[in-house]
Amino acid sequence: MEGRKIVSLTQNRADLRFPFPERFAERVSGQKIVRLGRRAKFLTVELSSGEVLVMHLGMTGRFTVSGHATARYKHETGTDPAHDHVVIVLDSHDIVTYNDPRRFGFMELWPAEQFQSYPRLMAMGPEPLSNHFSAAYLDTALKGKKAPIKAALLDQSVIAGLGNIYVCEALWRAKISPKRLSQSIPGQRAARLAPAINDVIAEAIEAGGSSISDFASASGELGYFQHRFAVYDREGQPCPACGTTIKRLVQSGRSTFYCPSCQR
After folding, report:
1. Where in this chain does the record put each Formamidopyrimidine-DNA glycosylase catalytic domain (predicted)?
2. Domain boundaries defined on the chain
């Protein structure tokens, strides 16, 4: 998409989680895509108009890039065209379609020169794969926090972009109980946790993500990291390290999977 011109944008409904920007199709159509980016779970498209298109997939959102305009990618990916809410046609004749059955995703436009003040990103913590994230950072960020470590890691102001699956897997690798208070992590536990987070994310990216219910890449391919889960979604099964039965509990409305023997 980078360097391509957006020939047209078709908006098939008035809103997703939030209403679309005013004159959305008019403001995006005809613009050149200067740069694609990402911050946490937000996708960004810098446009030649001086605006940034900010996009979030929510729970079930998916972008699919199909071939030329005659291709009917729906037959290849199994998505329901009734949920195709935004369709972008590029000057290469490729089609980029946003499909979202539950409509928890959203799209917004923000001036590029003011993007540092975009409110949804202002309180974000560091990216886990960036140079700003380390055991030393965790020592500082978790000091004095009384929340369970599982909840703290899902707090986007602590670390940007971590989700439930990868937090469960990282805590298992670091041998840390999800119930342990965050303030007890600094020191040796943080030294185990930081590289565990990085390793889990790197391996998941290499495997194409985790396809549990509806995730697929922009080409329609499924991810395979779910076949490597040590604890996530494995309640009642043996821990791959010690054989103890994996347990499940609910924390902040989210399922947590862990080994009660390995994780302390």
Report:
1. 1-105
2. 6-121, 135-258
